[in-house]
Specification:
The chain is built from 13 helices and 22 strands. The chain is an alpha/beta fold and 479 residues long. The chain has two domains: 267 residues, Aldehyde Dehydrogenase, Chain A, domain 1; 188 residues, Aldehyde Dehydrogenase, Chain A, domain 2, CATH 3.40.309.10. It starts with 7 loop residues before the first strand and ends with a strand. Helix 2 packs antiparallel against helix 5 and helix 9 crosses helix 10. Helix 13 links the parallel strand 18 and strand 19. The model has no long low-confidence stretch (mean pLDDT 97). The strands form six sheets. A seven-stranded mixed beta sheet has the order 14-15-16-13-12-18-19, with helices on both faces. It has a six-stranded mixed beta sheet with strand order 9-8-7-10-11-21, with helices on both faces. Bound molecules: NADP nicotinamide-adenine-dinucleotide phosphate. The site of NADP nicotinamide-adenine-dinucleotide phosphate has 26 residues, from helix 7 and helix 8.
Length: 479
């Protein structure tokens, strides 16, 4: 912790907030304060904006190879420091060290991927239909960006945005979540060490997100917002972005269905459920929220899932052997408790878990509920905790209708051994991503994102960089 930066990163310098404000960062496993960091206000945001705007023109002219090599160096430094970064992430966010190490590798991969994409930004040329005019197409960085990230993947949500922005030649202000700012500050230090010019990345940590971000979005100098977080906040930021017609990418909430048909391989389904539900303690936008089981396999699946969930070791993420860390804070845990209580009141049976653990820290035990009523609040609320809620269905049309009966459409999981059914059901699900006989879809080389109120645009994959580029078309008459 001693070497971790705790100040704002603006124009390549580490600065206190102009008004000297600070805020604490705490450890969700103990409730203890880890350190105090700078708490930016609107004046600091203006400084960061100025730095990003000033750096934009020159950065846009940098050779793609130079941008690529900065990302590549940063990728290598991140991997060299896996252990250090994993400990930092576990301290501020709570996830077990093994998962934190996994996130470091996942986060670094976005830099490697976009270091490879930086040198493949294409353009085009063509003859227009009249046969006389020519067109030349080039691609330009969209301009200074505001990147806003949540707390659940403190490093990867940053690299998934910073990577393509650097590759495209954009400058940026990153505003990380106040619960997990340390990973972002460590990342800024790594990028500086990797040779990123001053002002290209600015990091503004704050407890006053609205006051800091709204003037940036309305001011007309920030040209792009890339946001990951809840649908409610995304909607508000879309409205704020409308005034200055800021281009937006939105990675919002989910309400993933996890569908197990009667012809599924139950070993695969239970393994998949453990990942889709328990990755990140259930605090993931991709987390399976509604388990739809064909009635013929529901009991067996519930029993096996409860056995696996009940055997998981819960405790502070730094302790050896721990598989489930604390939830992010008391508010997050309170929400999970209320959703479980509501489901039980409406008739759900608790197969395992369901009771808050005593003691310090925000722990909640892995929980399996069965006979869940479709009226339960957790059917249309992201649980964001280690709770699997099982419902049953009778036929394919019915389960597709119920799975789609939600405003969200990020991801769905389908378990069946029938190829026809696998393709048919996947195509009918209103989601941006489908895990077919698997509980994990996230991969830097694949386009991540949702439909409906789960978002706009995609991150990662070949298209991830497009979100940070604009076309310029040159009309050239040839006489
Ligand atoms: P959140 O409350 O929406 O916050 C996300 C970020 O937005 C935080 O940095 C937050 O800072 C900031 N924010 C909140 N109000 C703001 C405002 N008025 N102006 C500017 N920034 C503002 O979400 P969260 O609880 O951190 O994260 C969980 C949510 O993220 C879930 O819904 C999850 O599904 C979603 N998520 C989606 C993806 C995806 O790729 N689709 C990935 C991960 C997470 P403050 O906390 O200071 O308000």
């Amino acid at each position: 912790m001693t070497d971790t930066p705790t100040q704002l990163f603006i124009g390549g310098a580490w600065l206190d907030a102009v008004d000297g404000a600070t805020m604490p960062v705490d450890d969700p496993a103990t409730g203890e304060i880890l350190c105090d960091i700078a708490d930016a206000g609107p004046q600091d945001a203006r400084l960061a904006e100025e730095a990003a705007v000033q750096a934009q023109q020159e950065w846009a002219r940098t050779a793609p190879r130079a941008r690529s090599e900065i990302l590549r160096r940063a990728y290598e430094i991140i991997l060299e420091r896996t252990d250090e970064l994993a400990h930092l992430m576990t301290a501020e966010m709570g996830k077990p060290l093994a998962e934190a190490r996994g996130e470091v590798a996942y986060a670094a991969e976005f830099f490697r991927w976009f270091s490879e994409e930086a040198v493949r930004i294409d353009g085009g040329a063509g003859v227009l239909p009249d046969g006389r005019n020519r067109m030349l197409l080039s691609r330009r960085p969209v301009g200074p960006c505001l990147l806003i990230t949540p707390w659940n993947f403190p490093l990867a949500m940053g690299t998934r945005k910073i990577g393509p922005a650097i590759a495209a030649g954009c400058t940026m202000i990153l505003k990380p979540a106040p619960q997990t700012p340390l990973s972002s500050l460590a990342l800024a230090a790594i990028l500086k060490e990797a040779g990123l010019p001053d002002g290209v990345l600015n990091v503004v940590t704050t407890s006053r997100a609205g006051e800091v971000c709204e003037p940036l979005l309305r001011g007309g100098r920030i040209r792009k917002l890339s946001f990951t977080g809840s649908t409610a906040v995304g909607r508000l930021l879309l409205a704020q972005s409308a005034e200055a017609v800021v281009r937006t990418s939105m990675e919002l909430g989910g309400n993933a269905p996890f569908i197990v048909f009667e012809d599924a391989d139950l070993d695969k389904a239970v393994d998949g459920a453990m990942v889709a539900k328990m990755r990140n303690m259930g605090e993931a936008c991709t987390a399976a929220n509604r388990f739809f089981l064909h009635h013929s396999v529901a009991e067996e699946f519930g029993r096996r899932l409860a056995e696996r969930m009940g055997a998981l070791v819960v405790g502070p993420g730094t302790r050896d052997g721990v598989e489930v860390g604390p939830l992010i804070d008391r508010t997050g845990r309170g929400k999970v408790e209320a959703l479980v209580a509501d489901a039980v009141e409406r008739g759900a049976r608790v197969l395992v878990g369901g009771r808050t653990q005593e003691g310090p820290g925000c722990f909640y035990p892995p929980t399996v509920l069965t006979d869940v009523s479709p009226e339960s609040r957790l059917m249309d609320t992201e649980i964001f905790g280690p709770v699997a809620a099982i419902l049953t269905f009778d036929d394919e049309d019915e389960v597709i209708r119920r799975a789609n009966d939600t405003p969200w459409g990020l991801v769905g999981y389908v378990f069946t051994e029938g190829l026809d059914r696998a393709l048919r059901v996947s195509e009918r699900l209103e989601v941006g991503m489908v895990g077919l006989n698997t509980g994990l879809v996230s991969n830097p080389a694949a386009p991540f994102g949702g439909v409906k109120q789960s978002g706009l645009g995609r991150e990662g994959g070949r298209v991830g960089i497009d979100e940070f580029l604009e076309y310029q078309y040159l009309a050239v008459p040839v006489r």
